Amino acid sequence: MVERIGLVGAAGAMGQSVGQALAERGKAFRVIGRSAGALEASFGGMPRVERMTWDPEDAGSVRAALRGLDTLIYLVGVPYHQFQQHPVVMRQTLEGAIAEAIQRVVLVGTVYPYGLPRTTPVTEAHPREPHTFKGRMRKEQEDLLLEADAAGKIRGTILRLPDFYGPDIDKSFLHGAFVAALQGGTANMIGPIDTPHEFIYVPDVGPVLLDLADRPEVYGRWWHLGGPGTITQREFATRVFAAVGKAPKIRVAGKATLRLMGLFNPMMRELVEMNYLQTNPVVLDDSAIQKLLGPVKKTSYDEGIRRTLEAMRPAPAMRAA
Fold this sequence. Notes:
By secondary structure, the protein is an alpha/beta fold. The chain has 14 helices and eleven strands.
């Protein structure tokens, strides 16, 4: 029997990465999201894709969207100022998935549940001790999946990722550097920007996630996938500008500036509590997944920058106009 795979919360950057990897492997799949238009924009050009909309608040809608699937890739995002929705939507999804006899769920997770790193790098054995609201909500989301796995209701695993970047991914902290370099502006960055950090090129995620999902032994725990090495935000931005032949122009907003901006901008206000990740970045040790799967492909920063700029440059006809 052919495995039936569904991507829930598919219209974002990670959904497109996983979808592309599935398409390259010749697999049919289903994409699920709130907006039919967003799903069409993200997957309309891919073959063998079934698109379905859902409403997580409606149990019948959830079950209908998941019906007939074997594996669920969970990619649901929520607005940054509504993180309390993460465990809520996970619970709604799990209830529908269990009712529809879905066999396994792979959650794409973050470093937030770890809280302040005790070591550098951080292995999967690091305790989850979040000190922020967002970290607690993400941990609660993970616990729901892991508890369902432990109870034998469904198999669940987590692929934990660092910050990411790639073509037109505006939710990346690095996106402004690409826009500024291409348009001749100044890159607005969240500081401090001279601490060793790591970033993953989004198209690298899909193939690794699919390889992980295929292995029965990966369920009931979480796994790390890190970047190709550490780099500071300043060095990354400098390389972006250099790739288009320009000197870097950078404007840095620190924690105090974020607090001030947060008086007028809810997004900036929400960034304040997570600023510890700029001063004490979580760098992931992913030797466990490399031992399991063998060496995984990681695009170098220079190559990822080149590809991102290439994808974001306007077409020749548009430049001429």
